Amino acid sequence: MAKGDDALARKRNKVRRKRMRSSENAVSARVAGIIASKRRRKSGKRRACEGMCFSLPTPEDPFNDRHGKKRKGDDEPTGDAPAAAAAGRDESKKKKKKKKKDSSAKKQPAREAAAAAANAKSREKDGAEYDRPSKFLVVCLNAIRDAAASEDGGGGIHDTGSWGVELWNCCSAAPPTHVLDTSGECATREKTAWLVSTACDIVARKEKLGVVVSCPFLLYLVPSQEKAVQVRSICKPLKSLGIHSVSLHPGASIEHQISGLKSCEPEFLISTPERLLELIALKAIDISGVSMLVIDGLKCFTDLNVSDKLCSIRDAILSNPQITIFSDPSDRRVAALATKLVGGKKITRLCTNDSVTSRSAFITQKIHICPSKDQKAPKKQLQISCAIKICLFACHGKLMGFSNMQVKEILEQILNDHARKTANVLLVTASDHEAQHLSSSLKLQNCTVTNDSHGNSFTICSSVGLINVLVKDWENITTANFEDFDTVLVADLPPSVDEYIEILAGASCHVLVGEVHCIFSSADALLAKPLSEVLTSCGQVVPEFLRKLASS
């Protein structure tokens, strides 16, 4: 027996209700209303309120511009009596407004005081909250850890907490600081988790303050498709927290990626340089407003000969993004490319590896030999080619004579290497007495002495360039801010090579490319072997005289 239309309709409605109640296809009430309205519109059955209702034209509104609405004063009575009544109503309204104004004026001081106190309290709360990572960053880290627990345990994310907090401080500073990590060739899974979680925290705080965040906010450049898939898997758990990420690589068709970019605006973009430039040329994506740029594996990009593509991507970003670079410390070729990408600005070096190779990457170390202490220098005046005159006096000790000549020659070399620029040099001596003597012996009419508590700071001016020199002894070296110097000249080597390594690490902490010059004399013979080992581990050139002393 065939079923009737009513039975079939009931069956269809039952299936629809079941589908709507299922958790997979459940939607909000707003979306359900939109869907139902669209279904009614297509079937031709509209509600009364959804019909094409309109008001008829009237003599007062012949073209129906007011859509049936009346103007103010249209229904007001005419004549003397109605006018008097209207005037009475206006007067009573004025009295009521005056009473309300008086009552509100009494409450206004208390209200303003309460509002000011609330604003001050909120500002104080925000200031205390924004000077440290928020709870949302921890939530993001835990989401990534829980997603990776099934694969490798995911327990190492919080083990790199000190590195992650330093990274957060650099990215959240005003203005943000560029970061260079030379612990390895590429970023580890834990470091990537901290990096994307830091970006999530910054996005959430900007939105909380009402700042419009441009998409994509984070651009993560990777050298290969495999690395893009790995970074995308780390960012995938953040989707439930409102952070969307998209990976672009040659493994997928460009048409599919263009259609995907049209349907969403991702906060995080993981891409290879080649595919990203193709999409930019097709105007499928705009990266001009990127706030954070990550270059994972700078040495891999140089090996693939895509350095020019990295520079093109950096030029396409019109804003001033915070740049984080991961690179291998053993390859010095990438130093010039990294300097070009960051624009020669100061950086912060973060390393989870405490080896001297990682801590002093891209720092040039030069050892200069000094004649024996027993020799004496005659009193004379030396003329530098760039018209810098330095008087040297015949005296005893390492810094009194030939060492002064060595310092003069090294400063001349630094001045020529930084032509048309300003070089900041930290000159380290054995004691405060020798520091004062060296400082006074290097001052002449062409040297402008700057203000310093001990008079050990001066400037050498010439037509070639400018050198700002600060002389410090080993006891007061901790008071020197290494961030202000790109060159360190050690006139007196310390008794232990560990102190030299600390100077080397301090010199490389905030500069991407720097120099460390050392004057080596016969009194430092015991340091020949450990110093040559440090130079060899850092990939530096070991002088022949130092190699002979180390082997003897």
UniProtKB/TrEMBL annotation:
Domain DEAD/DEAH-box helicase residue range list: 215-327
The organism encoding this protein is Oryza barthii
Q: Does the keyword Transcription regulation apply?
A: no
Q: What PANTHER family does this protein map onto?
A: DEAD-BOX ATP-DEPENDENT RNA HELICASE 50 (PTHR47960)
InterPro entries in the record: DEAD/DEAH_box_helicase_dom, P-loop_NTPase
Q: Which domain of life is it from?
A: Eukaryota
What are the Basic residues biased-composition ranges?
Answer: 10-20, 37-46
User: Where does the record place Low complexity bias?
Assistant: 111-120
What name does the UniProt record give this protein?
A: DEAD/DEAH-box helicase domain-containing protein
A GO term, aspect molecular function: ATP binding
- Start and end residues of each stretch annotated as Disordered: 1-128
Keyword annotations for this protein? ATP-binding, Helicase, Hydrolase, Nucleotide-binding
